[in-house]
Predict the 3D structure of the following.
Amino acid sequence: MNEQALMDIAKVLVAGDKGLLAMDESNPTCNKRFAGLGIPQTEKTRQAWRELIATTPGLAECISGAILYDETIRQRNKQGTPLIKTITDAGIIPGIKVDAGAKDMAGHPGEKMTEGLDGLRDRLGEYSQMGARFAKWRAVIALGEGIPSRACIEASAQALARYAALCQEAGLVPVVEPEVLMEGDHTLAQCFETTEEVLRAVFRQLYIQGVMLEGVILKPSMVLQGLACPKLETVEEVADATVKCLLRAVPAAVPGIAFLSGGQSGELASARLNAMNLRFKSRLPWALAFSFARAIQRPAMEIWSGRDANVEAAQQALLHRARCNRAARRGEYSAAMEATGA
Ligand code: 5MM
């Protein structure tokens, strides 16, 4: 393991005011998003969408790294150029999602366990050869009556740590993503408690498995009330709770935290990230960045709707959301940015 190389990549991914773009939806998830907009669900349309993203002029001003999916990293455009080359040439570091998805957990109704450790060493070697410099694995934690169970938290944390150790062995920076889901009627306080417990378990397992924290990026969910919770917390309350939780559970050796959006609107995700950086940035040991999928892609995909004629307008919308999040990293995002499309 070349520790310095891992540390360098991790640092670059969260440097300055940039963040990550998650474009790693598996085919079923990508197809689900397309279906909602009447876009044909084919390999060709998925390629066209990913190419639209990768060729967005100026995207690298805001995006340091892009997380790809197995199908995407192997795709080429009509001229035969591999998509990973288009991304690298644009100045964006390519990464790859390597988990095999979350499946029902045996003996634990309502909970999921992420699969994909079998054969992972070989797959990481292949992705590294192809040019990937970092990887991503998502664990899913649901909140509800009697859940999450200790079994789900500990097994998810251990899988994340075993994945991270294999990544570092292969020279890839592991993005460690424990997502506490927004579904449910839980309060902000309940989400705080669970998120802290999950993060403590994850960092305990990373330590046990010998993972070098300086070469890791954490991709957590923000601390949020459940979607069905009647009490709506303010942007500032969410920012305060999220930062307080992270300060309790995330070691200072970690270079950066890049949030997932989890289904929040693009505007709310930017506003909440902005509030965290505005209120706390100068006092935090790690960078607070973003690794959004829906909160960057959604408006652009709606505009595109599978039509060539809409590519340019969709790219402008994509760049707009990326710029909003770059501003949020500086604590300079405001609702006015949405009005002007600046
Ligand atoms: C939580 O999802 C991740 C971040 O996306 P959002 O910002 O939209 O929440 C995302 O990287 C996710 O892991 C991928 O889209 C892959 O999902 P699937 O379920 O297709 O593996």
